[in-house]
């Protein structure tokens, strides 16, 4: 599995499939394959509504977020570490493919400082361990945490745990036709 993000012109490429705006979920799933599970969250949607669908690929270390109304893929989440499952939709295995940002092959098992040093784009610090880059409707977020120490506290030396890439999406747009 190869996931590539290019900034000029902005595009995400998943196994050769080019994403410039939110594709119908079926198109992206045709490229990746059948998910291990679909997580709809802990709280059921109200009557005649639907939650976002998290298509989790446990063996690939990724999940794809499908918007509840448009039924379009609007984010890909890449698990770089699975020692701690941070969310119910977290894949069971770490991503083992290639993650490429503007031609830079990103180290998957990296410390926060090594990963950020390799970043080819300007990055913004949000809060401790959380960073992002944005351009032309694309958003790339990075999260790093310190491993738990025997004392229960966290190490100050943070490691990258996930990357999330989203692309332009109109949440009020029409769902793709099914016919």
Explain this structure.
This protein has 179 residues and is mainly beta. It has 2 helices and 13 strands, in the order βββαββββββαββββ. The chain has helices at residues 25-32, 112-118, and strands at 2-7, 10-14, 17-19, 37-39, 53-57, 62-66, 73-79, 98-101, 104-105, 124-127, 130-135, 138-145, 159-166. The strands form 2 sheets. The protein has an 8-stranded antiparallel β-sheet with strand order 4-5-6-7-13-12-11-10. The radius of gyration is 17 Å and the shape is globular.
Outline the secondary-structure elements:
Blueprint: E1 2-7, E2 10-14, E3 17-19, H1 25-32, E4 37-39, E5 53-57, E6 62-66, E7 73-79, E8 98-101, E9 104-105, H2 112-118, E10 124-127, E11 130-135, E12 138-145, E13 159-166
Parallel strand pairs: 1-8
Antiparallel strand pairs: 1-2, 2-3, 4-5, 5-6, 6-7, 7-13, 8-9, 10-11, 11-12, 12-13
Strand order, largest beta sheet: 4-5-6-7-13-12-11-10
**Main beta-sheet annotation:** 8 strands, antiparallel
Q: How large, in whole angstroms, is the Cα Rg? A: 17 Å
Strand content: 35-45%
Number of domains: 1
Global mean pLDDT: 93
Stretches where pLDDT is under 50 for at least 5 consecutive residues are none
- Through-space gap between termini: 30 Å
H/I helix tally:
2
3D shape: globular
* Strands, total number: 13
